Amino acid sequence: MHFHDDALFPENQDKLVITAAPYGPEWEPADFPEDLPVTMDQHVQAAIDCYNAGATVLHIHVRELDGKGSKRLSKFNELLGRLREAVPDMILQIGGSISFSPEGEGADAKWLSDDTRHMLAELDPKPDQVTIAINTNQMNIVELMTSDDIAGTSIQRPEIYEAYRNMYVPADPAWVQEHLKRLRANGIQPHFQLANVAQLETVERLIRRGVYAGPLNVTWVAIGGGFDGPNPYNMMEFIRRVPDGAILTLETLMRSVLPINTMAIAMGLHTRCGNEDNLWGGKGEKLTSVGQIEQLVKIAEVLGRKIADGKEARDIYRIGEYYDSADETLAKLGYAPNRKPGQVGFTFHA
């Protein structure tokens, strides 16, 4: 991304899109009972509260009544139907992992099968987005968690800790290509959840080869354990490599969430928060998803950055927009055009 001399002036930045992730699939309800919904009514109320606080994108997972993460698509359909009525202006974004929580004590924490995840393209009512991972990758979500982060939570139990320490994301090339095809066929926008620049480069190749044609919504997921960590040097290199026509959200975990999101707000990028990423305000002080959103709204107000409403967020994300070719996608995103036969030197848009 290119930063002009006036790029940090809030009047020259897009309005801020805040993604809320209030369903924390890695936690058990007892870890934060005030903020982790179990019943369907509680799931819906969490969305309403996040929207009223200033979030316009809702990252969705679902729990069963026993508190475990649901792997039933019927539960997602039920929640989507109720959310369309309760928060009609929110962008509804399904987490592509569905639920990665262990089935029982000592069980593996793992993403569901390729075929099951493909079925996210068949949800009814359909979501606006489904998140998609690129390249099979380690996803050790506890690597950066401190003893303070997990104190008094289920992840403190050795068998749960080990389950998450050994988790990985299955996302091989054939699965990615088929998933992108199915999402487009059903009018659902992919939201690319990327661990590092190498995965961003793979997305660029998918675009150059015509596998994906459309707007590029990207989240830099800096959670360590196979992903980048929340290191500002990693962050700035990733930002530098994202094309100007893409929309970039920054995501990390635990008490790194607030400083990384503060930098995102200042630089004209977008933010994500909620109990899926973080349970804490100050050290040892739990903070609800709504409280985290309210923090970001206050920081944006101090910096003069306006908050997008639901319609504005849809325009920024280009929901419902698709492109017809690699050339069109490259041009609209700001990537250099593909090399023509016999063309030498660097390529650029005249």
TrEMBL record:
Keywords: Metal-binding, Transferase, Zinc
GO MF annotations in UniProt: 3-keto-5-aminohexanoate cleavage activity; metal ion binding
InterPro entries, sorted: Aldolase_TIM (IPR013785), BKACE (IPR008567)
Pfam families reported in the protein's UniProt record: BKACE
Transmembrane helix among keywords: no
Domain of life of the organism encoding this protein: Bacteria
Cofactor section: Zn(2+)
Protein name: 3-keto-5-aminohexanoate cleavage protein
PANTHER family linked to this entry: 3-KETO-5-AMINOHEXANOATE CLEAVAGE ENZYME, 3-KETO-5-AMINOHEXANOATE CLEAVAGE ENZYME-RELATED
Keyword presence, Transcription: no
